[in-house]
Design a protein that fits this description.
This protein is 75% helix and 0% strand. It is mostly helical. It has one domain. Helix 3 packs antiparallel against helix 11, helix 9 runs antiparallel to helix 17 and helix 15 runs antiparallel to helix 17. The longest helix is centred in the middle third of the chain and has 36 residues. It is flat, with a radius of gyration of 23 Å. 39% of the residues are buried.
Length: 357
């Protein structure tokens, strides 16, 4: 007579799971300590690399090289840290839960809720557009969906985290507040225009997708894995743009005269804000790639309002996003979207250039 081993239950079954969780938590803590150690030596390492090159210490090339050698690892390390943290946060906010939170919301309150969710649901424009379709099919008002569509890529965790780390909390807070206002007001205005008939016909017929894995069913290890997956996915896609943005920022920092930047993007030229927006729209970049450029422009005397308008136009009105949106919006509705959001961005630029004289 053979006997079978009983299946462990209760505390006995939970033992291996707790051990696995402890290993993940210890590994995460060790990685954070190592991250802090490497981050603390970036500046002397960059100085040493520049000193080893045959460059004039106070020359333009040395300044550009110092900016590049310091900012490249700094921005990439900050990007990894922020994306990992928000990947964990994202595990609490699936597409299905986001859609459920917005369904049934009226305009006004719904616009505020949608813009706020855009911060804690770190979807880029590419993934925000499918969510946009799901929101429309779930009965979320059009203006509310636009508030989310604007806030998700523009007021995202990468932009805020890097702005805070690179140029300070005041600029980050300013960008947060006025980015949200642009998303809320633009979505409300579009909703008041009642342009649902200007959606592509197939969008109104699409059905909402299936739900994600219930958030409550996820363990601590699942959430840490989600953070690592986000790093692999997001950083893997944007790192080349980050380095490109840092290279542009290094060139501005090293060779572009401060007086020239101040004359083109300073407070004195009233046309600097619309020009900055027009320059930003056709650019192909993202928050991580454009922030090193923003850092260099501010350091070289550019006005805060002009730089914020430039950054917002690059992220919220970029040409690639317009191409994606064209799949779900008619030309008329796409034009309304660009005009309303563009006016909001211009208002932010002019307001801050007037306030911070």
């Amino acid at each position: 007579m053979t006997s079978t081993c009983p299946v462990p239950r209760g505390p006995a079954a939970a033992g291996p799971q707790r051990a696995g969780t402890a290993v993940w938590l210890l590994a995460t803590a060790a990685a954070l300590v190592a991250w802090a150690g490497v981050y603390s030596v970036l500046q002397p390492t960059a100085d040493g690399l520049v000193a080893a090159l045959p460059l004039e210490p106070a020359g333009h090339a040395a300044e550009a090289a110092r900016f590049f050698f310091y900012d490249t690892p700094k921005v990439l390390m900050l990007l990894v840290l922020v994306v990992f943290a928000m990947g964990v946060v994202r595990s609490f906010f699936s597409a299905e839960r986001t859609r459920a939170l917005l369904a049934g919301r009226h305009e006004g309150v719904g616009n505020v809720a949608a813009a706020a969710l855009g911060i804690v649901t770190p979807f880029c424009s590419c993934s925000a557009v499918p969510l946009f379709i799901g929101f429309v099919s779930a009965g979320v008002p059009l203006g509310v969906t636009f508030s989310f569509l604007i806030a998700a890529p523009m007021v995202n965790e990468i932009a805020l985290g890097l702005l805070f780390a690179l140029v300070g909390w005041k600029v980050a807070a300013t960008y947060l507040v006025f980015g949200l206002l642009v998303a809320i007001v633009a979505g409300f205005v579009i909703g008041r225009l009642h342009l649902e008939g200007w959606l592509q016909d197939w969008v109104r017929d699409v059905r909402a997708g299936t739900a994600d894995l219930p958030e409550d069913a996820q363990t601590v290890v699942d959430r840490l894995r989600a953070g690592l997956d986000a790093v692999h996915d997001i950083v893997g896609r944007v790192w080349i743009w980050v380095i490109g943005g840092i290279a542009v920022g290094a060139a501005i920092h090293g060779w572009v005269p401060v007086d020239f930047v101040a004359s083109v993007m300073g407070r004195g030229a009233w046309w600097s804000v619309p020009v900055a927006v027009l320059i930003g729209i056709p650019m192909y970049s993202n928050a991580a790639g454009i922030i090193p450029v923003v850092e260099a422009l501010l350091a070289n005397g550019a006005a805060l309002g002009t730089v914020l308008a430039f950054m917002m136009s690059v992220i919220a009105l970029s040409a690639p996003e317009m191409v994606i949106l064209r799949k779900v919006l008619t030309v008329r509705l796409l034009a309304v979207f660009v005009v309303v959001v563009g006016l909001g961005i211009l208002a932010v630029g002019f307001l801050f250039n007037a306030l911070f004289v």
